[in-house]
């Protein structure tokens, strides 16, 4: 019997010669993909019903003031959007100025590799400045910077004595984000004329990687205050000299904060208390909308070019550290999708939302559905696998020329020299 | 038809070089030197002369192809106004077949070394074209070159261009026709086809 099983197994595992190099066993994977697809289909139909209900709720006469209070006093296990005004208003596309600038940066980095001899990392920032109107012009460049000194390998924490934190992985990503924002300030300063400008970043302004207690408070504070928030402060000063919209663009956003506000609205309890509901084990009213995303909601509501009302983030990191840069956001129908645009609070207060709205939409229209300035900044910043390999080769070649011994880890050598 | 001699200027720089030809990238998009024109570049102490034969404009990155963008624009120029980044993402290159060099003297045979990468490429001024085409030995280099564009097309273009630098363009072309007859020997069909290109 054992022999038969062994034979059955070897037959199943058999792969023709031309597939011999593949490590993913497609024979086993395909049925799983098919099962997943069937499940997604069923979910989609359930999802349509949920969406219909959510849109009806949005269209109904919600008491916004009461909902605001309910959100502020409730205790939920999910993040709920802060409301500025209503939920279901639609704001038409504002006019685009005849002459304007759009600037953006994006970044890519080569992390410290502990299997290599040299302890260093590289941050490459892509910079793009586009001028539209009479004197249409473009500036595309990238700025690689290598960090290798002992001081640059750690995040010093001046407020916590002589403590420091190794700068790698998530923290290096945050440092890179700050570098992108710093270069964005440079681009704004370098404009030839103070025409209306949009300064755009990619992704969220909320540094989610620093949340959840993964890092000591001093690390979070240091990174935010000397990094992103300092740069946003600089942009605010620049905005005082001339119209400057500042935002961060999120394509295909997965957020559910506005849907969660509707979940609060349908909750029969006041104050809302998720923990209590869970303990009692009763069927939850809010489950009717679970699984919906904000982008589904606004896809059913906004016409092309229109934006949603303004919301603000109630995440703990924003409440605790961001202050005047509190993250506000709106959703925008850019025709191909619903995008989320995050802006610091002062952009709202300084009346720069219409400019941000108009220019983000204009960028998407010119960029086949995605801001052209961001896709070019990405093209400038991106480091391919080949770039990374070449970088390490150059580092090692240079060290050899200087007469230094190259000693990487055995693991690294084994990855580079595969053998049987 | 004789061509007007292009204004002498620095048009680009060498990005690929071999003994027999080089590729240069233009500084201005869509502005390569004319087909058949004489250009020069420096390789150390020698000046290399070459004839432009294949200009092309395309994406700076092989993986990114241009797409149609003008459906809503009234004029073609508006496409560049609405998408200013395009000028930075496209490039115009041209190839040139090396036809001679100058050290102390002017030679119409291949130089001892190829051009240097990043050497500037200039369009030759009228006097230089006149001087260079005062001898027609360079025609044999073109006739024997292995270029993708038709060799005879290039011979015709270079002679029509050079004729613009001579006081009597027709007399120059008649002289060139004689030189071609001598080089092509009994290949009357090809000679005939070439002579048609000099009109």
Q: How many extended strands of chain A?
A: 11
Structural class of chain A: alpha+beta
CATH topology value of the domain at 100-252 and 323-385 in chain A:
archaeoglobus fulgidus dsm 4304 fold
Q: What is the averaged pLDDT score of chain B? A: 92
Secondary structure class of chain B reads alpha+beta
- Spatial strand sequence of the major β-sheet of chain A: 1-9-10-11-8-7-2-3-4
Largest interface: A-B, 14 and 13 residues
Oligomerization state of this entry?
A: heterodimer
The biggest beta sheet of chain A, please? 9 strands, mixed
Share in helix of chain B: 25-40%
What does the average pLDDT of chain A come to?
Answer: 89
% residues in beta strands of chain B? 25-35%
Identify the strand order in the major beta sheet of chain B: 1-2-5-4-3-7
What's the CATH architecture of the domain at 100-252 and 323-385 in chain A? 2-Layer Sandwich
CATH class of the domain at 100-252 and 323-385 in chain A: Alpha Beta
Strand fraction band of chain A?
15-25%
Helix tally of chain B?
A: 7
The count of DSSP E runs of length 2 or more, i.e. the number of strands of chain B, is: 7
Textual characterization of the structure:
The complex is a heterodimer of chains A (420) and B (199). Chain A is of the alpha+beta class and 420 residues long. Chain A is built from 14 helices and eleven strands. Chain A has a domain at 100-252 and 323-385: archaeoglobus fulgidus dsm 4304 fold (2-Layer Sandwich). Helices cover 43% and strands 17% of the residues of chain A. In chain A, the strands form two sheets. In chain A, strands 1-9-10-11-8-7-2-3-4 form a nine-stranded mixed sheet. In chain A, strands 5-6 form a two-stranded antiparallel sheet. Chain B is α+β, with helices and mostly antiparallel strands and 199 residues long. Chain B has one domain. Chain B has seven helices and seven strands. In chain B, strands 1-2-5-4-3-7 form a six-stranded antiparallel β-barrel. In chain B, a hairpin with a 3-residue loop joins strand 5 (90-102) and strand 6. In chain B, helix 5 packs antiparallel against helix 6, helix 5 packs across helix 7 (188-196) and helix 6 runs antiparallel to helix 7 (188-196). Chain B starts with 9 loop residues before the first strand and ends with a helix. Chain A binds chain B through residues 128, 130-132, 136-140, 366, 368, 372, 376, 379, and chain B through 61, 64, 67, 80-89.
């Amino acid at each position: 019997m054992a022999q038969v099983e062994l034979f059955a197994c070897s037959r199943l595992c058999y792969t023709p010669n031309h597939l011999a190099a593949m490590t993913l066993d497609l024979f086993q994977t395909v049925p799983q993909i098919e099962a997943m697809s069937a499940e997604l289909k069923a979910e989609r139909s359930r999802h349509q019903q949920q969406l219909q209900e959510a849109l009806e709720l949005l269209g109904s006469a919600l008491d916004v003031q009461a909902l605001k209070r309910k959100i502020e006093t409730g205790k939920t296990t999910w993040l709920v959007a802060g409301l500025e005004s209503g939920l279901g208003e639609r704001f038409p596309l504002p006019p685009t100025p005849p002459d304007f600038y759009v600037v953006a940066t994006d970044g890519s980095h080569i992390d410290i590799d502990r299997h290599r001899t040299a302890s260093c990392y590289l941050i490459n920032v892509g910079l793009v400045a586009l001028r539209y109107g009479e004197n249409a012009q473009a500036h595309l460049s990238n700025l690689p910077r290598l960090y290798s000194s002992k001081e640059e390998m750690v995040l010093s924490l001046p407020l916590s004595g002589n403590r420091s934190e190794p700068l790698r992985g998530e923290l290096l990503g945050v440092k890179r984000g700050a570098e992108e924002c710093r270069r964005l300030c440079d681009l704004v300063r370098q404009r030839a004329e103070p025409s209306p400008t949009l300064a755009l970043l990619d992704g969220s302004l909320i540094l989610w990687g620093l949340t959840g207690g993964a890092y000591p408070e001093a690390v979070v504070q240091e990174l935010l205050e000397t990094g992103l928030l300092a740069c946003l402060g600089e942009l605010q000063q620049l905005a005082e000299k001339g119209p400057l919209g500042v935002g961060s663009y999120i394509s295909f956003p997965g957020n559910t904060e506005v849907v969660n506000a509707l979940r609060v609205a349908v909750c029969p309890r006041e104050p809302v208390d998720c923990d209590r509901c869970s303990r009692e084990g009763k069927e939850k009213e809010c489950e009717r909308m679970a699984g919906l995303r904000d982008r589904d909601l606004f896809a059913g509501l906004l016409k092309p070019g229109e934006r949603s009302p303004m919301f603000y983030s109630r995440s703990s990191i924003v409440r605790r550290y961001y202050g005047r840069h509190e993250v506000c956001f709106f959703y925008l129908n850019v025709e191909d999708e619903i995008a989320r645009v995050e802006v610091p609070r002062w952009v709202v207060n300084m009346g720069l939302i219409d400019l941000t709205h108009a220019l983000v939409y204009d960028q998407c229209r010119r960029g086949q559905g995605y801001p052209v300035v961001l896709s070019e900044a990405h093209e400038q910043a991106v480091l391919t696998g080949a770039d990374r390999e070449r970088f390490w080769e150059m580092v090692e070649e240079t060290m050899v020329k200087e007469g230094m011994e190259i000693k990487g880890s055995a693991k690294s050598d084994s990855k580079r020299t595969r053998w049987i | 038809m004789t061509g007007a001699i292009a204004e002498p200027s620095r048009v680009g720089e060498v990005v690929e070089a071999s003994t027999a030809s080089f590729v240069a990238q233009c500084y201005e998009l869509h502005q390569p030197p004319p087909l058949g024109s004489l250009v020069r570049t420096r390789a150390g102490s020698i000046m290399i002369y070459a004839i432009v034969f294949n200009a092309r404009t395309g994406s700076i990155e092989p993986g990114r192809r241009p797409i149609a963008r003008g459906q809503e624009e009234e004029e073609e120029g508006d496409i560049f106004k609405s998408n200013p980044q395009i000028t930075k993402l496209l490039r115009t290159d041209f190839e040139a077949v090396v036809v001679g060099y100058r050290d102390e003297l002017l030679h119409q045979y291949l130089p001892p070394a190829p051009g240097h990468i990043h050497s500037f490429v200039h369009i030759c001024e009228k006097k230089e074209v006149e001087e260079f085409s005062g001898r027609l030995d360079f025609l044999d280099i073109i006739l024997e070159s292995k270029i993708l564009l038709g060799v005879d097309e290039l011979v015709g273009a270079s002679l029509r261009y050079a004729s613009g630098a001579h006081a009597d363009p027709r007399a120059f072309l008649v002289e060139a026709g004689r030189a071609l007859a001598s080089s092509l020997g009994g290949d009357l069909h090809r000679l005939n086809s070439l002579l048609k290109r000099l009109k």
